[in-house]
Amino acid sequence: MLVPDPKVVRQLLTRYATLRIAQAERQTPAVDRELEDVTRRLCVTMGTAGIHDAVARADDLLVRARTDRRRSPEADGESGLSLAV
């Protein structure tokens, strides 16, 4: 299974949240269309049929990516290459 790029997922989640706020403040056809588009893209990216599942999976993916990054040798300032010659 392909794993979405966490940066792309983060951007989609941010845009989704921004549009939900904009829709709550002042609902317009343009915001509605863009929210529908971002919702669809987030669902497709996360492999879900509904936005609630997509957001939950996206959150899980971002938590795992953050945890993996902390465990990587690069996080400790190391390249992961052996110093032996």
Question: Can you characterise this structure?
Answer:
Pfam families: DUF5133 (PF17196). InterPro entries: DUF5133. It is a single chain. By secondary structure, the protein is mainly α. It has helices at residues 6-25, 29-46, 51-71. Helix 1 runs antiparallel to helix 2 and helix 1 packs across helix 3. The longest helix has 21 residues, at 51-71. The protein is elongated. The termini are far apart.
Features:
85 residues; mainly alpha; 3 helices; elongated; disordered C terminus; DUF5133 domain-containing protein; DUF5133
Residues in β-strands, percent: under 5%
CA distance, first residue to last residue: 38 Å
Helical fraction? 55-70%
Average residue pLDDT: 87
* Low-pLDDT windows of residues: 81-85
Could you give a short account of the major beta sheet?
Answer: none
The chain-level structural class is mainly alpha
